[in-house]
Amino acid sequence: MKFLKDFILFLVIILLQVSIFNNFLFFGYMNPYLYVYWLLSRNNEDQRALYLILAFVLGASIDIFEGSGGMHALATTFIAFIQPYLWRLVHKHGEEDEEAPWLQQLSLDRRLVFLILALFLHHLVLFTAENFGFNNVGILLKRSLYSSIFSFIFVGIYQFWKARR
């Protein structure tokens, strides 16, 4: 049953991203990419290869609908690959609560740092691939930062809504 629920959520996230969130573009720099949160909220330690494949499929699905040539697949696979390192960077030993969902095992401040770092790195890789390099570094960093903040706000709203249910 959990697999079916995760699969449906996976499909809903893709549909929301391509039908609603891809149509947001504020001030030419801010575009929320919330599909990344689905990836970040999953524990990947047990089935690392499956997690990397799911990350690629998630990104490739977004690429198919956007016609973006693999940039989202690159960025999501990169995030899936570095997620354990980011986790170790912010995780404090002794914080584990085996009953809590994976991301909720972190204290609020560490969870915020984890999400901000992961979202920023995802957006930086995505926009660097879109830009085909590091020319116009200022614009690249601005787009990455603003879109990360914008995505983080939506993730925060979702987290708050989920906690209230």
Describe this protein's structure.
This protein is mainly alpha-helical and 165 residues long. The chain has one domain. Helices cover 70% and strands 0% of the residues. It contains six helices and no strands. Helix 1 (2-19) packs parallel to helix 3 (48-66) and helix 5 (108-131) crosses helix 6. The model has no long low-confidence stretch (mean pLDDT 83).
In short:
Helices cover 70% and strands 0% of the residues. The chain has 165 residues and is mainly alpha-helical.
What does the secondary structure layout of this molecule look like, with pairings?
Layout: H1 2-19, H2 35-40, H3 48-66, H4 71-90, H5 108-131, H6 137-164
**Percent of residues in beta strands?**
under 5%
Q: Can you give the mean pLDDT?
A: 83
The proportion of residues forming helix, as a percent range, comes to: 55-70%
Shape: globular
The total count of helices amounts to 6
What is the makeup of the main sheet?
none
Q: What is the count of structural domains? A: 1
Rg from alpha-carbon coordinates:
15 Å
Regions with little confidence, pLDDT below 50 for 5+ residues: none
Q: How many extended strands?
A: 0
Q: How are helices and strands ordered from N to C?
A: HHHHHH
Return the structural class: mainly alpha
Query: What is the CA–CA distance across the termini?
Result: 20 Å
